[in-house]
Amino acid sequence: MLAQVCAVLCGLAALALLVRARFPDFWSEVFYLKDLLLALVRVLWRRRLRPPFLAVDRFEEQVARQPGGTFLVFERETFSYSAADRRSNRIAHALRAHSALRAGDTAALFLPNEPDFLFAWLALAKLGCAAALLNDNIRSGSLLHCFRCSGAKVLITSAELQGAVQEIIAPLIEDEVCVFVLAAECVSAHMQSLTEKVENVPDSPIPRSLRATVTFSDPAVYICTSGTTGLPKAAVLSQNRLLAALAVLASIGVTGSDVVYVTLPLYHTAGFLVGFIASVETGSKIILKRKFSVSQFWKDCRKHNVTVIQYIGETMRYLCNTPKMENDKEHRVRLAIGNGLRADVWKEFLTRFGKIKVREFYASTEGNVGFFNYTGKIGAVGRVSFLHRKLFPFALIKYDTERDEPVRDANGRCIKVSTGETGLLVVKITKLAPFVGYAGNPEQTEKKRLRDVFQPGDVYFNSGDLLKIDHNNFIYFQDRVGDTFRWKGENVATTEVSDIISQLDFIKEGNIYGVQVPGQEGRVGMAAVTIKEGAEFDGTKMFNHITKHLPSYAQPRFLRIQSTVEVTGTFKQVKKKLVEEGFDPAGISEPLYFLSAQERRYIPLTEPLYTSIATGSVRL
Ligand SMILES: *[C@@H]1O[C@H](CO)[C@@H](O)[C@H](O)[C@H]1NC(C)=O
Ligand SMILES: *[C@@H]1O[C@H](CO)[C@@H](O)[C@H](O)[C@H]1NC(C)=O
């Protein structure tokens, strides 16, 4: 073990001397990256421990270190590390006694942001089980699909979500799934109250031997990423990835005395890894919120002495859009971690709310590389360092957006873009940068692998993201291939919109894309939707839901009602066809609707209305 760490360090030192002449920035890079390097050493160190040291073992270390320290604050409740430990022990005992769940199995968590989400996850981790985190907004077919992807045999849900599980109970019974509800009462005889069982078991520690068979390549967490296909995919995070996340996230400046405000959903990487897992590493206090709320944000920060906040681009914009207050700068927030922050919002945020260190990063849930902005260059997601290139060989390659594939030369090889040019990020798949793929979906997994990139037989991870590197090695996120479009200067994530649309009870599936409107920049949102059997399209309900949950730029202005989802060919082709057909009723036989802000509902899109929109007399 020690020998290995020494070898790594000596190797790095030798490398350092060699490259010093060619890379004058080298030492400043090492300075910036020293925490990252220490983190790497820590990961290597832990990986050698037997029995295997998992993320949950770090939690147990924290419990031993500061049993009375606050782990979590949620609404009016406060949980110490010891209380959280005991509660998760009880859940683990109950699960073990009342289900067949054993190390190596998977259970799905279909829970809102609440303490039991974390306790149930800890319980599963203590048993050596993987957890599939299900988006609590998805319903019916998508929910079932996501659940099945993970191969879970146990589903844990909450009082408020059991109705959604009831909708899919028939196939769950068929698959012999064990459904537990964290409530005293269940709506169905096919569900069991976990609350009641938890009360009748001891809170004694779960022996580590129960998880001794778990290896680093085993799945730890499945995270559903809703793709363009409408059906989500389950990205697999291995134990190794979790361990790396633990160390890397702790290297970005969060410490044990920090108070971390977690408002993002725990079922996504941002909330789960950056909010929860990183706090387990550092031993910080978590202030958990059910949802992000603009009006409560700063009040909460002041009340709880929050020092670290998390963001996604939108949340920062919402905060900046509120009326200015005299006490805007009265808070203790010193660090903001997240991604998707646009340069102008960033500047405004800093001017308005004071000197907060912003750590912007780029990473995808399933990807095998990440970039961090260590330097403070507004607009960039990070800086490409020499070490980074060595450890994670990546390239930006030319991409043909029309044909939706990388450009290849006469020999069939991909072509690197020149400095300052935008290209598709591809990352060599290696031992250090593995790509695990999607659970139960070899097809989608293979699609993310790009072969014969620069040499016959080489394999790269296709990030699907377009990035740019400038002459000073700063790296900038530009766009997502296929998944996003821009409207009124804002990126619209189609997945986010389809998540919202699929919450409507009459919608079966929604496929979101952008269409061009004559005389307008960018593309405006359009949704091709299918209606559930026996249900009817309700233009008013749809309007209310969409305008309530989506920012104006992301609201689909046009709807196209399809009787079936086209399944032939790759989904991209289907989407491409829809984009090409646009919203002209003359060329489309299916019913079309238009979001009328005036009438506050979706109204049928007629030929005269189409003409008014196309000529600009009806403004969008
Ligand atoms: C926040 O800090 C102040 C001043 O140090 C302290 O009086 C207060 O109790 C703290 N509040 C919480 C919730 O920790
Ligand atoms: C990078 O971080 C610095 C300092 O935290 C910040 O000022 C800068 O705006 C960041 N750049 C980007 C593009 O996020």
UniProtKB/TrEMBL annotation:
Give any Pfam family that matches.
Answer: AMP-binding
Topology relative to the membrane: Multi-pass membrane protein
GO CC list? endoplasmic reticulum membrane; plasma membrane
Q: Which UniProt keywords apply?
A: Cell membrane, Fatty acid metabolism, Ligase, Lipid metabolism, Lipid transport, Membrane, Nucleotide-binding, Signal, Transmembrane, Transmembrane helix, Transport
**Reaction catalyzed:** a very long-chain fatty acid + ATP + CoA = a very long-chain fatty acyl-CoA + AMP + diphosphate; tetracosanoate + ATP + CoA = tetracosanoyl-CoA + AMP + diphosphate; a long-chain fatty acid + ATP + CoA = a long-chain fatty acyl-CoA + AMP + diphosphate
Species:
Pygocentrus nattereri (Red-bellied piranha)
All copies of domain AMP-dependent synthetase/ligase, residue ranges: 59-382
In the record, the note on similarity to other proteins reads:
Belongs to the ATP-dependent AMP-binding enzyme family.
List the GO biological process terms: long-chain fatty acid import into cell
State the source organism's domain of life.
Eukaryota
The beginning of the lineage is: Eukaryota, Metazoa, Chordata, Craniata, Vertebrata
**PROSITE patterns in alphabetical order:** AMP_BINDING
Q: Which InterPro entries match?
A: AMP-bd_C_sf, AMP-binding_CS, AMP-dep_synth/lig_dom, ANL_N_sf
Know the name of this protein? long-chain-fatty-acid--CoA ligase
Family annotation (NCBIfam families):
PRK08279.1
Enumerate the SUPFAM superfamilies for this protein.
Answer: Acetyl-CoA synthetase-like (SSF56801)
Q: Does the keyword Cell membrane apply?
A: yes
